[in-house]
Amino acid sequence: MSDSDGGGCCRCCCSFILTSGLTALFLWLSLRTSNPKCSIQNFYVPALNKTLNSTTNHTIFFDLKLDNTNKDKGVHYDAVNLTFYYGPNVSFLIGNYTVHGFYQGHGKNTHRKYLLDTRGVPWDEALKAVSNGSLAVFRVDLVTAVRFRIIGFKTKRHKLDLKANVEVDGTGDKLKKKKGIRLKSGAPELDCYHARVVLSVILSAFVLLL
């Protein structure tokens, strides 16, 4: 076999490996998914609005936003279970709410607004806090599972276990009135890490083949 034949074969092999790697990267980018973003857009506690002086109204109004940021993938939600607590921990359970499962199209967002009847809130303590210029803190936990619809088929279920603290002032509203409060998981974000690993492998292979 001549040197030119050997060189041509090597170039073909290198080209095949590089093409296969780029194809795998393209497929991975096409199939990778991002979990929905969940946030509390509004959170209003009438009993803590000092101007109303309504100590008998023990309801909480909240607006939950579920945002599918995937541009070409739909999301099937199982039942979305919300648990509300007074304080940043789970000492005072004050209410539950369940959003029935539903499908959300790609790039869509959904709002679920509800008036929650609470129980067990230490209202005297909360009202004293906001009257003194401090903040009353509530905690919202969200648990559900989602499946992604990609090119006509569904993925396996991905569990979401999220939480956020909501600070309420003397107006009865959450502190950041114009900005939603993102519910987040304590687990690390894996998508970005996986993306860096795959890209590093492809780039390393590309450099070696030059």
Automatic annotation (TrEMBL):
Predominant location: membrane
TM helices/strands, residue ranges: 12-31
Keyword annotations: Membrane, Transmembrane, Transmembrane helix
InterPro entries: NDR1-like
Protein name: Protein NDR1-like
Top-level taxon of origin: Eukaryota
Keyword Membrane: yes
Subcellular location: Membrane
Organism: Ilex paraguariensis
One GO CC term on file: membrane
